[in-house]
Structures are given as C-alpha cells and as structure tokens.
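User: Show me a protein chain along with its predicted structure.
Assistant: Here is one chain, sequence first, then structure tokens.
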Amino acid sequence: MTDRSDALVLFGGTGDLAQRKLYPALYELARAGRLPRRVVAVAASDWTLAELTARVEASIERFGGGVTDPAALSQVLEALDYVAGDYRDAATFDQLATALGDSERPLLYLAIPPSLFETVTAGLARASIAKRGRVVLEKPFGRDLASARELNRCVLEAFDEASVFRIDHFLGKDQVLDVLVFRLANSLLEPAWNRHHIASVQITMAESLDVEGRGAFYDEVGTLRDVVQNHLLQVLTLVAMEPPVDTSADALRDEKVKVLRAIPSLDPAQLVRGQYVGYRDEDGVTPDSEVETYVALTTTIESWRWAGVPFSIRAGKALAATATEGVVEFKRPPLQFFTRCDAPPPAPNRLRFQIKPGGEVGLQVQIKAPGGEMVSHPVELSYRYDDRVEGTREEAYARLLDDALDGDQRLFARADGVEEAWRVVAPVLDRAGAVHAYERGTWGPDQAERLLPEGGTWHVPEVGNDG
C-alpha cells in the first residue's frame, strides 16, 4: 500500500490529545493543502456534530496559535463527521464504515488508552475496515516488555506491520532529525565518529516544571517509562546508528534496531533515581510514593564502533532549566604543546545538539588565547535556527500525520524496535533501588555523579531557567 490515505479517523476524538495536538495538526495540514477530504471523530461521548465542530474550532484557536487562515479552518470543519458509540459495540464500527463511505484507504488514529487497542482493532477487523486501512498508535506502547509484546500481537492480528505507525511526536521535531542529518551530511565527522576519537556521549532532557497537576498519571508512569524508554533511547540511536544503505523506512529502522540490540539490559547499579521534594504532596500522588521524577543512567553499546564509550542519559522534572540536549565529547589531544608548562591542558572538543528550547548545533574548539603566550581557550562555532526557519517548520504532529497519510514509516517505530527498547530498561523498571530526594531548581540528586567516568561531570545545557 503506497497511495495516500483518503480519510482520517480519530478514535478518542473528544479527548485531551485530540484537542491539544491533533485538531491543530489538521489545521496545519489544511494550510499546506494536505488534509484528507473526510475526517471522522469517534468517541463514547454523546455529542452532536455541532458540539464537536465548536470544540475543534476552539482547539485550533487556543492550542494552534490562532486562526490566521480562515479558508483552512473552513476546510477542516467541512471535512468533519462524528460517530458516538461504545468501542465494545459492533454497531459503532458499522456506523464508522457508513461514515467512511467510499473511502479506500482510511488512516485510523487510536488516541485512546492502550488497554482499548485490542478491542478497537478487533472491531475494525470485524467491520472490514482494518484490511484497507493504516493504523496510528499513540504511546505508551505498553508498560514493560511483556505488555509491549502483547500489544504488538493484538495489533498485528488486524494489520500488517507495513500498515502500523507507532507515533512518537519527538521524532517529528526538526531539531531531533538534525542529529542524524548533521552526522551523515558532513563527511569530516565520519573518521572521528567512533571509539578511537569519542570519549563519551551525554543526553539530557530537563524540565523546570513539575508534574503540573498530573500527579495521578505520573505516579503510574515515572520518568523512566515516560521519556527514557522512548524519546531518549531514540535520540541515542540517531547518534550511534550506522549509515543506512538507503533512505527507505526499513533501512533506517534496521540500523536503529541494531543499536538497541547492542545495548545490554540495564543493571540497577547503572541507574540513579530521584524525586523532587514536594512531589508526594501533589494531588493524586500516594503519600509514600517511590516513583521517580528524575532518572540518570550510563550504558554502553557493544558494537565495533562504540565498544567502551559510555553513553549517559538523564531526565527529570523540577530541574534547574528546561532543555533537551545531546553532547558528544571527543578525546583530548595527546600532548601539550605550549610554552607555559603550568597551563591547563586544552578542554576536549564537544559537539552539542540542542533540541529544546531552541534548535542549535555547536562545536567547541580551541584557539589561541589573546596575548603573547601559546595558551589555548575554547570557543564555540554554532548555528541556531532563526525565526524565519522556525516560522516555516511544520508542527511535529502535523509532520507525522502527513507522513502516515502517505504511508511513510521512516519516523515511526517498528515492533522489534519497541520491544528492544523495553528489553533494555526491563530489569530496572520495578527494582531500580532507592529514590533520592532533590530540591526543586537543582540538577537532581548528587548521586548521579557516580555514574560518570572518573573525572567526568554532567554537561549543563547553555540555557536559562524558563520556568
């Protein structure tokens, strides 16, 4: 199946995800002339089409940056239809089939809890909708390896893998994709992109905000499941993967899966968990909760290219700044060729990929310090996405929806990749040791320093606290 989908179905069409992300994405697709002619929302809510239309218009106004293209808004609203019904009732799927009319290739977006995936995919199969459609699955893809395997099993009973799109909005960001493009489009990096020249890799995903009233949700998930198993392992694969043999989806995902397979399952000794002071007072959080709001870990990739290079990851809430950044640190020069013997050795070169808050790539190099002596000092050669570039970039969900409508799976996870990521974190999901308290506005518990090689420190992202 290679033709573009001619209809879009949103299960969970009255939910929060649809309101905050999906309807604004539809507006972006309409502005780009890429919206399918029919959009059907499906939900249990006993709404009318008029009520849904009002919700969609308000959603685009509030979460989509406002309506600047009335014609695009009209296109979205005219495409809308609504099916209300219980997902366990076969009649709901019969109504959906009627609403789809002569659509030949619907894209079916499951913005619903994973516990309902099997029920909905079975209903789609019974109504003969699955065999002609593609399906988008919203994360989380399970809670552990066993549930991920079960989820894949039930979905693949109704759809071929080529028709399954496991969405991770993080992979729709230009700044994330630039990690791979920067690597592979600049041949000067290739000779140094290995264990002989790279000393370490760090990936940080920090948020200055706390759980923001979502305590009940977060207390069921924690940082490891929320962002490490998916977002940050995906960034790691982009840093470490071999160049794919071509630009096809399978070639790209083959190389990412190879990286995940080469990561040993984590040992609890390789991980530090933290919890910000006051988390247990949040609404919905149990008074004695041991769920982490911070996690740091160090692992290795047991491949010829990366053997012996530590890869360190940290992520957390209520930290000193909001930033997502990867830092590749190269090995130091072998000798000190300076006239002052007491001069400090040059700092190692560092390549920095800042994904959030603004896209930036920076390479720290050494040049001669001003003055008469042969002493070096660091400077950074950098590129930051300017306002013009940012203003023309499609929002991540719109990009991924557009790709799914086209049947392009390059930015979507494959079943084996999802299962390998869960395999990596499986041993530490439920027995990861003590959770260490840390104060809001810090960089997490001090215990995380022990995970780094001797003399190593966590790189602090070069941004201020944005609150």
